[in-house]
Design a protein that fits this description.
Layout (H helix, E strand, L loop, with lengths): L2 E5 L1 H7 L9 H10 L4 E4 L10 H14 L4 E6 L3 H10 L3 E4 L19 H11 L5 E6 L4 H9 L5 E5 L1 H5 L4 H20 L3 E5 L7 H7 L5 E4 L1 H10 L1 H13 L1
Parallel strand pairs: 1-2, 1-8, 2-3, 3-4, 4-5, 5-6, 6-7, 7-8
Helix pairs in contact: 2-3, 2-11, 6-8, 10-11
Length: 247
Amino acid sequence: MTLLSANLNAVAQLRNRRDLPWPSVTGIARVVLDAGASGITIHPRPDERHIRRSDVFELSELLRRDYPQAEFNIEGYPSEDFLELIETVNPKQVTLVPDDPAQATSDHGWDFVGKGNFLRSVVQRLKRPERRISLFCDPDAGEEGVLAAKSTGADRVELFTGPYGACYDNTVAAQAALSDLAETCRAAKAAGLGVNAGHDLTLDNLPAFQAAVPGVAEVSIGHGLTADALLMGFAEATRRYIAVLKD
């Protein structure tokens, strides 16, 4: 079964619109974990436009104290500040993304060939027996890309599903996007890498993704989950995503 990691960036961004402590990031974390989510994902950016540094420590304490079985996944560009934060907090998974700090959201994977030496040094610094390292991966990375990712020492790749989510309403384009994702997933698993996925996955497009790209260990979903939660609440939205992933 594919596990669900609930991304809480959008919750934090909503909170940050006002100088108020709600909606509570840790409070929503409790709701989604109690509803069955297997973990929490956050992406603390330097400008703190959504997740704040204080959130990182509060979530870490919450998971250690009350949800020790849950996975804490922290995404980010491997700047020195980010690396020091990871070494302090010690999450169970780190997902390295090639984002510029000014980007609104992640929109491409790593150049595993061109950035191989850089990534190898970062992975070696962060990797621990109790900590998994995942690398953000373009959907069409293919065999060459995932072999280069494997050579860094990473444990997993995370398939960038944004292009698929963007063209889901176009049957031909969606099938082509799914074909790329499926091929990269197969190549990654053949190379001995685990596979995660995330970006613009929704209750509508997730079933076709699941059918076309089998063997994904975990999906990180935030924007879609939050949008659905506005209509049905976070607990029910979480349960519905988990039900799709079980199917």
